[in-house]
Amino acid sequence: MTQTSLALTMGEPAGIGTEIAAKAWRCLRHAGPSFFLIGDPRQIQDVPTALIRDPSEAKMRFGDALPVLPLALPAPVQPGRLDPANAPAVVAAIERAVSLALAGQAAAVVTNPIQKSVLTAIGFPFPGHTEFLGELAGTGRPAVMLLACPGLRVVPVTVHMSLRAAADRLTSDLIIQHGRIVAEALRQDFGLDRPRLVVAGLNPHAGEEGTMGREDIEVVAPAVAALRAEGIEVRGPLPADTLFTPRARATYDCALCMYHDQALIPVKTLDMDGGVNVTLGLRIVRTSPDHGTALDIAGSGRADEGSLVAALRLAASIAATRSKAV
């Protein structure tokens, strides 16, 4: 367990972020890991709060109240109703959390879900958290999205784009770059001495020897060969329709998938409420719940905190693994 608390961002104020933060505190207050929320304390309901001025206060206060590092919202919040006036505060919370993690004042950053449409409306130039965090705390390499649940880790090589654009974007170099980052992260963050990777084919049946497209022969297979030549244990391209059965999942530590839904569908099918989004290739540890803002149930009290609890626990675990390796 880390000695420094985790920084949790408020996410979209009209969504379920503060509700699941309060529920997560109830779940973790005795066993930890400790965290503090960067957000507006006026949003917190049903649990005691402790306003803190410095992250070092969070661990001491955590057993009795949810520690909150205040960041005021400029406009009143109505659950389920987006207001661009509050969008700059959402961005500021992420920036504050990252700066604290970079300074060693937070063990990791855990982000509540944001609403990309309202951020785009104020000129936010990034398609999502991953790309923004890469700008704030990157290492010169692309930030990579890994989704994890018990029994499965997946990485989409292309992410938030149309399927047509994803096929055009996919290159051997992009797959190789992701494979290197994933193999390194599995060693550094998950403590796997010799991680085993598999690579899904782009086309049905991994192209079936070119009869269903030549991308798997001309793009995917050369990338797999190059990664293997670097000493990475990797297989592929393999047909995606049989890659996620229980028997298949037991043979690898992470699957590289060629597009967004190829990766996210199996994770969300296996564990919709416990999946975690991890950003690889950063100077800090960052995790997030694997769900959205749930505007349709915001304010109803029905939000499930399971994915956030899993994200907090995994962030603490990764931070502890990294600290042992230093």
Automatic annotation (TrEMBL):
Pfam families: PdxA (PF04166). It is an enzyme of class 1 (oxidoreductase). It is found in: Cytoplasm. Substrate binds at H129, T130, K268, N277, R286. It comes from the Bacteria. Its cofactor is Zn(2+); Mg(2+); Co(2+). GO terms for molecular function: 4-hydroxythreonine-4-phosphate dehydrogenase activity. InterPro entries: PdxA, PdxA_fam. Catalyzes the NAD(P)-dependent oxidation of 4-(phosphooxy)-L-threonine (HTP) into 2-amino-3-oxo-4-(phosphooxy)butyric acid which spontaneously decarboxylates to form 3-amino-2-oxopropyl phosphate (AHAP). HAMAP family: PdxA (MF_00536). This is 4-hydroxythreonine-4-phosphate dehydrogenase. It comes from Falsiroseomonas selenitidurans. The gene is pdxA.
